[in-house]
Specification:
0% strand; mainly alpha; 2 helices; 67 residues
Amino acid sequence: MKSILDSSFRYTPSAQTDLRKTFARLRREQRQNDLMRVRAKIAAKVTVLPTKESRGADLRVADIKKQ
């Protein structure tokens, strides 16, 4: 939170604020942060295993290199 002593602080009169919009924005930001946190947890737990096709492709490339 900015202090009124901070040079970048700008006072906004209460007549020019819309609390409904402010709280809606804060809720949106919080949902987005929560979603990102959940995705990061899921990504940390997921292990990607090679498919049969990719294993076969690796073997074919290895066979070509031998020739």
